[in-house]
Amino acid sequence: MLSPYFIYITTNEKRTVLYIGVTNNIQQRLSQHQFDTQHAKKSFAGRYNCFYLVYYERFDSIEMAIAREKELKKWRREKKDRLIFSFNPDWEFLNEQLV
Known about the structure:
- There is one protein chain.
- The protein has one domain: GIY-YIG endonuclease (3-Layer(aba) Sandwich), CATH 3.40.1440.
- It has four helices and three strands, in the order E-E-H-H-E-H-H.
- The chain has a three-stranded antiparallel sheet, with helices on both faces.
- The longest helix is centred in the middle third of the chain and has 15 residues.
- This is GIY-YIG nuclease family protein.
């Protein structure tokens, strides 16, 4: 069975910066972002401390996930905020809720 693919949005603690990515292992990717934040600071997520998950979508195909990621990256911040709010009204950090 193939792993599902995810597009996800992470933010920093104060929710001022958004990072959009795609992965087939969301827990591992979030761990990488957290490690980069604490140690490397070379990636965008690492520099801006974006490892708090606030939004995600699941896909069966990498092509569909990448297309959705590209679509979201073109959006203005206000539209991304509305998307997150519709999924996660309190902007809770969802890192621990994923299995």
